[in-house]
Automatic annotation (TrEMBL):
The keyword ATP-binding applies. The keyword ATP-binding applies. SUPFAM superfamilies: P-loop containing nucleoside triphosphate hydrolases. This is MinD-like ATPase involved in chromosome partitioning or flagellar assembly. PANTHER family: ATPASE INVOLVED IN CHROMOSOME PARTITIONING, PARA_MIND FAMILY, SEPTUM SITE-DETERMINING PROTEIN MIND HOMOLOG, CHLOROPLASTIC-RELATED. Transmembrane segments: none annotated. It holds the Pfam family ParA. The lineage of its organism: Bacteria, Pseudomonadati, Pseudomonadota, Alphaproteobacteria, Hyphomicrobiales.
Amino acid sequence: MMTRIVSTHSYRGGTGKSNITANVAALLAERGHRVAVVDTDIHSPGIHVLFGLDPSAIRFTLNDYLWGRCAVEDAAVDVTNAALRDPSRAGSGKVLLVPSSMRAGEIARVLKEGYEVDLLNEGFHALCERLRLDYLLIDTHPGVNDETLLSIAISDCLLLVLRPDHQDYQGTAVTLELARRLEVPQLLLVVNKALASFDAKALAEQISVAYRSPVAAVLPLTEDLVRLGSAGVLSAQMPDCAYVNGLRQVVDQLEG
């Protein structure tokens, strides 16, 4: 099987994009897939927290690869044990994470100097090949910039996360238009943080018609995530909750 590249994106911050990426990675690995997650939100990295990675214990990051200090696969950390409830049942399933640096100096350098975006593309393909991946998940920076456009352009699937919110609706329309121009093969909308009082089916239909794109799932606004406070992957802690079951629908579509 060729590696499927999936970008998770949202036009604005705070949509829950990183939690969705982490849980989708875990659910794919549970089904026996080899998955890598790359945190390309270099300005405000954070997905490593969900996998319980201590920044001081990380040897190399994506920043090190972009500045020529290591091969990209050297920055990949095996986080399977943190991601899965029972790793022994996943067979060959694995979750690997390429984190971005949390060091203030490294973030400042990116803001000041930028980096060669083409290197990202080379790094993505090198990871797929050298780590024999089934899926590469790219956790993008919100909004639209060069690395976001690159990630979307090389993706087999774009998971576009939005909340039932008018600012999100407008930004999502812009991003979808870009993705269509870049001819991304599969576009899936994930509606997150829907109130319990909402009719999920009606909301999915309304959004699907408005954007001419399928809604893979409507995820509830859940106190479980708030309680967890990013200290873990929810699918490993509460595998049968509504949020995780909603994400299984997304994984079904990615596999299909």
